[in-house]
Amino acid sequence: MEKEFKRTLITTALPYANGPVHIGHLAGVYVPADIYARYLRLKGEDVLMIGGSDEHGVPIALKAKAEGITPQEVVDRYHGIIKKSFEDFGITFDIYSRTTSKTHKEVASDFFRKLYDKGEFIEKTTEQYYDPEAKQFLADRYITGTCPHCGNERAYGDQCEACGTSLNATDLINPKSAISGSVPEMKETKHWYLPLDKHEPFLRQWILEDHKEWKSNVYGQCKSWLDMGLQPRAVSRDLDWGIPVPVEGAEGKVLYVWFDAPIGYISNTKELLPETWETWWKDPETKMVHFIGKDNIVFHCIVFPAMLKAEGSYNLPENVPANEFLNLEGDKISTSRNWAVWLNEYLIDMPGKQDVLRYVLTANAPETKDNDFTWKDFQARNNNELVAIFGNFVNRALVLTEKYFGGKVPACGTLTDYDKQTLAEFADVKAAVENLLDIYRFRDAQKEAMNLARIGNKYLADTEPWKLAKTDMARVETILNIALQITANLSIAFEPFLPFSTVALRNMLNVESFGWDRLGSTDLLSAGHQLGKPELLFEKMEDSVIEAQVQKLLDTKKANEEANYKAKPIRANVEFDDFTKLDIRVGTILECTKVPKADKLLQFKIDDGLGARTIISGIAQHYAPEDLIGKQVCFIANLAPRKLKGIVSEGMILSAENNDGSLAVIMPQKTVKPGSEVK
To answer: Other C-beta atoms within 10 Å of 39: how many?
Structure first.
């Protein structure tokens, strides 16, 4: 039997404050967490939703150094952007704070000190890279070098972003300090470690035996880690940006960001509720649920629980419904490559369309495997589902009521068998949506909510009240009463998913919010109730809007390619005598035409100083024939002739290939005599 709880504490992964948030964050963590929180509040339950920015660690220090500003200035900028994005998308945090707050510094320091005093850490002295020029130890991200797996010369000490391989700094070929550029040396340093291996028996029992109901992707990843055997993990590092390690002899050392960040859930709760925060963290009648992405599963299911267990007085999470990753147009979302749909930019391009994105991201949620966001799918779901199903039904029900009854809810008369069948069908929606939300299947729950609109559409299409209005207005009254009751039910069923649209819908219905317990009721609107003015709930998304977003991504891809351009490696050396065998000359183009039935080929007639010759060249996609007539080009004059499309080609025109695949014909800077040799 499932345990009953008095209250629910919802935590959401702390986004890293070195950039804005994107659709991957929203889909993976914040929309599902918000749906769950809104659902529980609608049920009248006691709920707290905690969020905040993760503001320590090496990437922030690196960004600050690159921009010539302080790390605090970096996090201040992005914390503001992130917080506003969440507000704009209706993510209902009870508090959204940060790990640079005074409260967090105190809570994290006290947490470390308690574990330290209890003897829960082990001290280890190891050798790490040290920058003799900057006179500091180097965190993994402060070391760059060549990846031993793919040869990328800009790999970091913890990961190669070109091939995705996890690395140790000592794996890098030709390592260099990202601070000074000097070659680092190995030097001894002391750190504190959390012995995860000590907690392995407890974790095995708690996860593998006691929480078999966890999502398969979460359970599977935990089992894989446990089966490999847990190792002690450092909780401190040599850095000047972070929370100082609160023990003697730890100068220049801070709490490792993975240890510091999850404590942010506790400190943010304490900041919000300084007197009663412990009820939410230590009372066994509080249910705690962590919403995170798959890259955080290990920290929230193994590391953080081990920390809480070692401390001894905290609850452990009841569930960790982590999602997988959302890709974008078939490619992995990447902040460093700007391959993302940023939330703050989305609302500039599509004002008022928060719910469209919430709907599409939930419909496409990467709940158990990676999924893909495409702008075409976004358009299709908006036009074919939100507009054609949900919006169409609501509009028809309200407009017909306005037309026939002046916007007043008509009374429900005698029910036909079909009416009863329809009412029975939509009465089942509550249980279906509820059962799915309770087990964190938000994608399927939203689909069930949309079935309510499908039932309504089918009901109006089958009963055709616009035809009956000519002969049987009493029947029309009953039909529209039922249609309006379904409409009012939609305002409940979709409130967790589409908060902005359901506010607009309630305004049109001229009602306040209903509680979740009323979902499935057939008497939400009383006869004679005056409705508001009908308006379109959703609008069709035109091709031009979508094409603009696709073009934005294509421009990003092109900019990335240009920024990361690197010439191809030089081929093997050739002997000088071999090179001199090539006869490269300049010729003047007399004629140029497209080769029939060959998209890539142009046929040239070239004055080579000795008469004229024909050359076939594959540059038709890069030049119009008429633009080349009269121009001078470089060509190899002594290639053996060969047939292309039945035409004998007597040479090869030289061109350079750009990084985007475009070709540029090699031309002399000033006019020379046809047949001049290239020396």
So the answer is: 21
- The per-residue pLDDT of the chain, averaged, comes to 94
Q: Cα dist. 225→211, 220, 295 in Å?
A: 16, 9, 13
Which residue stretches of 43-101 are H helix? 58-67, 71-88
In DSSP terms, 642 is beta-bridged to: 649
Q: How many CA atoms lie within 13 A of 353 on its CB side?
A: 23
Q: How far, in Å, CA of 390 to CA of 386, rounded?
A: 5
Task: Tell me the CATH number for domain 7-120+195-323.
Answer: 3.40.50.620
pLDDT digits (tens, 9 = 90+) for 519-536: 999 999 999 999 999 999
- Domain range summary for the chain, segments of one domain joined by +: 7-120+195-323, 122-193, 388-530, 576-677
The CATH label, of 1.10.10.10, 3.30.365.10, 3.30.160.150, 1.10.730.10, for the domain at 388-530 is 1.10.730.10
634 is in an annotated binding site: no
Residue 592 annotated as binding site: no
How far apart (Å, rounded) are the C-alpha atoms in residues 520 and 491?
Answer: 11
Tell me whether residue 150 is annotated as binding.
yes
Alpha carbons 269 and 50: distance in angstroms, whole number: 7
pTM of this structure: 0.85
Kindly tell me if the per-residue pLDDT of 1 is higher than 60.
no
pLDDT > 90: percent of the chain: 82
Instruction: Find the DSSP H helices in 17-162.
Output: 23-25, 31-42, 58-67, 71-88, 102-117
Instruction: State residue 603's pLDDT score.
Output: 96
At 114, is the secondary structure helix, strand, or coil? helix
d(Cα 195, Cα 247) in Å, to the nearest integer?
A: 19
- Topology of the domain covering 122-193: Methionyl-trna Synthetase; domain 2 (2.170.220)
Tens-place pLDDT, residues 332-348: 988 878 899 999 999 99
Please check if 412 is assigned to a binding site: no
Supply 614's token pair.
């024909």
Whose structure tokens read 């509550």? 430
User: How far, CA to CA in Å, does 97 sit from each of 9, 14, 261, 399?
Assistant: 16, 10, 12, 45
Question: Residue 371 has what pLDDT?
Answer: 94
Question: Which is it for strands 642-644 and 647-649: parallel, antiparallel or unpaired?
Answer: antiparallel
99 has binding-site annotation: no
Q: Give 605-632 pLDDT, tens digit per residue.
A: 999 999 999 999 999 999 999 999 999 9
